[in-house]
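Lecture 7 notes. Example A: sequence first, then its structure tokens.
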Amino acid sequence: MHKEFLMGNAAIARGAIAAGLNLISGYPGTPSTEVLETSAKCNDGSMYVEWSVNEKAALELAAGAAYCGARTMVTMKQVGLNVASDPLMSLAYIGVKGGMVILVADDPGPISSQTEQDTRTFAAYSKLPCFDPSSVQEAYDMIGEAFELSEKYGTPVLFRPTTRVCHGYASIDVKDVNEYKKVQPEGFKRDPSKWVIFPRLSYNAHIHIEDRNVKLSGELSEYPRNIIIPAKDGSCRKGIATHGISFTYLTEALADKPAPRVMKVTTPFPFPEQAALRFLDGLDEVLCIEELDPVIERELTYICGKHGLNVKIRGKLTHDVKNAGENTCGSAAADIARFMGWELPEKAETETPPPLPVRPPVLCAGCPHRASFFAVKEAMKGKKSVFCGDIGCYTLGNAMPLDMVDTCLCMGAGVNITQGIGHIEPDTACFAFVGDSTFFASAITGAVNAVYNQADMTLVILDNSTTAMTGHQPHPGTGKTVMGEIVEKINITAVLHGIGVKTVETVNPLDLKNAVETVKRVASEKGVKAIIFKSPCAVIIKPEKPAVIDPEKCTDCKRCIKTLGCPGIVIRDGHAAIENSLCTGCGLCSQVCPFGAISKGGAANAD
């Protein structure tokens, strides 16, 4: 063993590798992304690593490898589990041979997500065991234990870190390479009675799962990470139940206090009932501090009812703890103080910091998506139009002054929502915007649906040659895999022609005049047609010299600012000016200025 300073996600990856990981697949999504990326960086050639086209594909791939006896891991964020839920629910019945861990990173807050889903609740729904680490060290150690339990019971296991564990850093104990476990898969053995799901098999499997989970509840009650900490004051008849990063907050909040009895729930499903009974014994009331759903609170309430215990369980359901958002050390300290009848901590009373300057998220300076949105906006002026967006950087097209995202639901949904609007409002010009990565992940089926059902819509694919929002991971259109292999690029134009889209035009959005004319021409056609705006992400290219504003020609109309909203153009001393540190020299503003006052590239502006 030796010490290393690691991010939580890196620690999880390293722990999985030390546990004998054979294959890892996933789809990028904050806060989970670095787990697979670290696995790729640390791959000595003994593992297969893959960014799959979406979470469903990733889970099914890993299941196939686990059928062979391999140790596999799948990575995703909480909304990705929705995509993977179809195979997951059936896989819970089929089971696996090799250890299979499904890492689902939850995002309380949410900090970078559409929802505040709680994977602990999904664990109960899918009837799968779930591990909930509270620190970077525990995440490193626990991932190996998750593999062991998965193999022992022949079931996939959910592993649920949250953002503060995933992105936290700590100096932890890690294994030396000579301590790594080596797993040699025995291969796939044909057994239709085991691997082919059908109603009778599912019925028997369901009975087995219910029996197994009762047994697991007892076993996990003795799991040393489900800890009970005695009260400092033996006469105290109050207790606190918590989990995950909230346990860390609680530990800090109680550091110098006469702490009550505490239970840390590390395996929220199957719930460690016998351990909970030991915790509840002799208590009058319990406060549950958790993120996000009242999972522990409901379980303890149920256990009290089942065993006739006169213990009052408090938490989210009783409004003693807030029912949304992430916890903090300050919020935990305040909740505990109210529960214990202590004076509120000083920090809790002044927890709200002074307001920060308003910094709304915007598209980067030089982002080609800005030009794409602006081209469509200009082309559709005066026409009844709707612009359906999707998940990606381009969701930021909803911000003023572009104001070009009317709907955004989940990955790939925009293509189908556009069709629904068009069928009800046939006089509306319907546009669906989707990125190149999202097109491959989840929008292809929507395009097939549009062609098959004769929709009238314009599909706009914003092709910036990367998965920009989550850190520039490769995808099928980039010609490269996460393992560094150079492969044939999947051509979006060919895919669209192959599914029956007859009109597919590709244009550089930074050539504004041509882009506007292309949109007018293509959008006027009936049926399903597509425009591919192709220009690389501003972050992955070498910027050109910044634009220059000629003060003699500038009339201070500020059209460049009011129409584009580019952070590379600022107001300085009351006049429009180029922020040289941000400007990439894309030239869009020079095409928008009605007075020719902005030139593309050239000498740096004088301050």
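Example B, a different protein, same format:
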Amino acid sequence: MPDSPGSAHEDAPVRPPAPERRPTVLEAHGDVRTDDWFWLRDQEDPAVLAHLEAENAWTEAQTASTADLREALYREMVARIEETDRSVPVRKGPWWYYSRTVEGSSYGIHCRRAADGPEPPDPAGSAPVSAWPGGEEVLLDENTLAEGHGYFALGTFAISPDHRWLAYATDTTGGERFTLRFRHLATGTESAEVIEDTSHGAAWGNDDATVFYVRVDEAMRPHQLWRHRVGTDPAGDELVYEEPDEHFYLGVGRTRDDRYVVLGLDSKVSSEVRVLDADDPWGDFAVIEPRRQDVEYSVDHDRGDPALGRDARFLIVTNDGAEDFRLLAAPDAAPGRDHWREVLPGRPGVRLDGVDAFAGHLAVYEREDGETRMRVVDHVTGTSRALGQPESPSTVWGGANPEYDTTVLRYEYTSLTTPRSTYDLELVTGQLTLRKRQSVLGGFDPARYRTERRWARAEDGTLVPVSLVYRPDLVAAPGREPAPEGGAPCLLYGYGSYEASMDPTFSSLRLSLLDRGFVFAIAHVRGGGELGRHWYEDGKLAAKPHTFSDFVACARALVDEGWTAPDRLAARGGSAGGLLMGAVANLAPDLFRAIVAEVPFVDCLTTILDDTLPLTVLEWEEWGNPVEDPEIYRVMKSYSPYDNVRATDDDGRPVRYPDILATAGLSDPRVGFWEPAKWVAKLRAANPANRVLLKTELGAGHGGPSGRYDAWRDEAFVYAFVLDALGLADRAARPYPGASGS
């Protein structure tokens, strides 16, 4: 454990911040809890901001000895990145759309070129922008919009059907309340109207003047759909729909065939979809099927082909009658459930994630055995073919496919060893073209790394998948080669909530760990969606503790198999994954040497009991409602990290927690900054020997720093913390065998 670096700076703090105790009594279901730091949620109290600033100063002082390491890691990361780059162009109507980055600039630039000339050259996507035919038109430069702001995020980016107008929305606080504006693309001028407090997403009507947008309420719930005509005063906008049920939120979009505007109304477990003819944007939305508890469905539209006897229809992906979802279809004129007809049945063990409709085919997205799959179904013949994936584990998903009338399907592929790759599949000939693979500079060769899938046995006998990546010349794989005594350093990542799947993807930043001999692993714990709906159901509500015990089981398996050892094992997770980090720190503090908990949801019971906080009511269908249900209250209290911080073990000995780095965002609307702040204070109070650091972004929200260079520096900070905690701060990246550089 490093000594306090107080001597490094004359004004460096010599002891960690210790916010005063102001006990608040919390009572529910006859149970009484005393929270000494409840007051830290009061952002109006000057002592709160002063405390966060003191924590930042302490963290900087405690990590001052790693400043050179952080800088070295950052330079390594940047050296691998093609800083001036562009995306593969996407054809939509008469234009090729793409985005690009410029070395030294933090944000993207959104552009287009006319499509009346030759197709942009170079299938690999590496030709310089200047080599393209025709003139480039810059639609939006995020760097210009970000000037003068410490934080910037682009939300809505929607081009009108006639390609003359851009609707775009920006957030400069991290609070996720966006300001919507309209830009005339031919002149680059802004329309006068400015619409505040919008959410992500907007949809145009086919009159090229009507825009539908979403507003949020005080609880940050997207709850209203509004209709606006470009060029008019927003004060005259029409409220189209307001969702009264606090469990539901709404979103708006368009079908790929441009026939309908779609209003989606969703809770965590139920859905309702309403559609409007995009040619009649001032008409009324019609309900596809009224909401029913625990029935989810989503809708796309297939305009059909009368010449081939194919009628227009709605395509419906639903769990109605199939736990892992099935595909149904209904005619335009009668889209309700009575007219739903099965297109693709549900299959045991295969989760249907979604379907995209095109003129001649369907693109089907599914997952099986913990991995994503894609297949294509021909409308005419009904035949189906799966897209091959060269590695396991790996990840595949649909790419940018805005055109309905196309015979080319774009998709994306990656693995823990293969950088993100964009492919175009010609559906008539079967020709597959690699359009672009993410550049990794510095002599990167994916063959020098190995990825594999392992399975850990949970407490109840359930097998939990673990994805691994490592350099075999630096890490000997247990069972195949003699494993070094004590194993390799390892960073184990987890999430396990909201049916979100942590599918394996490549990161060039991660090479800084792999080239220092690390194993990187993902624990695909219950509560995620990796193994289908049952995997999610078995890790939520009263079954939530499975998420935490699964992660511990994965960590123990890595140790037992010889991959790593507790003094070389670090864990990482964010948001609900930060809750996971806090829970496993309580469950198995001796199993980990370090834990990184980013914007962690560690005071979950107090938050979910408080329906005045943003998004709380929406969350009851994920975590349960501890206000009304005493059993859910009991379960949540049993795992809430803040409520279960331990000072001593069962034998009365002091509990020494792993070194912990917690992060927060002052503007975070999802996880209150006070949750990690309170947790850190309680961990220190439980045992002054605990090394716990808090780093709060005072000008950002849930996602941390917004600019790419700041984000890379943030990642270098995390890596330096992990290396230092594992006693590896002096370990340099190893050059590849036979390579001249690192």
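Note on Example B: Residues 8 and 364 are 58 Å apart (CA to CA). Residues 1-9, 123-127 have pLDDT under 50 and may be disordered.
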